[in-house]
Amino acid sequence: MTGVCPKCHQPLEGDESYICCADASLQWRCEQCRKVSEGFAFPYGMCPHCGGRLAVRDPLRVAEAAGLEAIRTAFEIELGGQAFYRRAAAESREPVLKELFQKFVGMEEEHMATLSSRYHVEVPRPADEFRIDRAAIYAGIPNRPEDPGNLFRIAIAFEQRAVKFFSERGADSKDGSVERQLYKELAAEEAEHVAILTTEFERWKVGKPGML
């Protein structure tokens, strides 16, 4: 028989350990503009007002702090990817790229819905305004909008960064913990995205149709 979470009363999936984040909320202060924002996560951990880096104002006041932090970080990166792909689809002038990035929007939405169901947290609202240069900053590469392959390179770079981040966090987490399991799953998910994007980019460069 399916169990029920004692915190939010939603059904539990299987016998795996879980973390309920149903009422989790944090306050953030931008290190650049100093404005305060409230919410569970923001794309790439960047300020919705100026794009500066956000810092948590209040500590995590839950028993499962490490697990909650893992889930919040996952949403932060997923929200960033979703916002990037949505904007890339809107800005791309090539029908092939527009269709590809729209498919990636759907993939990110599906993954976020899975995380939401598994960890009992409401899916954060994606950013209404998002600039491609923010994704380039996160990815750590130059933003060259005049280059047709610019969007591809940014996408691959930030997915690679996500793989590295989740792999390192997983290795540093306690063996057998929920957060280690989550980080490993996320690293595998992002590695799959890197492989798909790399394949699509190579085919696009030589004029071949995509695989998706």
Describe the overall structure.
- The protein is mostly helical and 212 residues long.
- 52% of the residues lie in helices and 6% in strands.
- The protein has helices at 65-91, 95-119, 132-139, 150-172, 178-205; strands at 26-30, 36-39, 54-56.
- A three-stranded antiparallel beta sheet has the order 2-1-3, with no helix packed on it.
- Strand 1 and strand 2 form a beta hairpin.
- Helix 1 packs parallel to helix 5 (178-205) and helix 4 packs antiparallel against helix 5 (178-205).
- It is globular.
- The termini are far apart.
Features:
5 helices; mainly alpha; three-stranded antiparallel β-sheet; 212 residues; single chain
Structural class: mainly alpha
Instruction: Provide a count of the helices.
Output: 5
- H-E order: EEEHHHHH
Which percent range describes the beta-strand content?
A: 5-15%
How are the SSEs ordered, and which strands pair?
Blueprint: E1 26-30, E2 36-39, E3 54-56, H1 65-91, H2 95-119, H3 132-139, H4 150-172, H5 178-205
Helix pairs in contact: 1-2, 1-4, 1-5, 3-4, 4-5
Concise structural overview:
The protein has helices at 65-91, 95-119, 132-139, 150-172, 178-205, and strands at residues 26-30, 36-39, 54-56. With 212 residues, the protein is mainly alpha-helical.
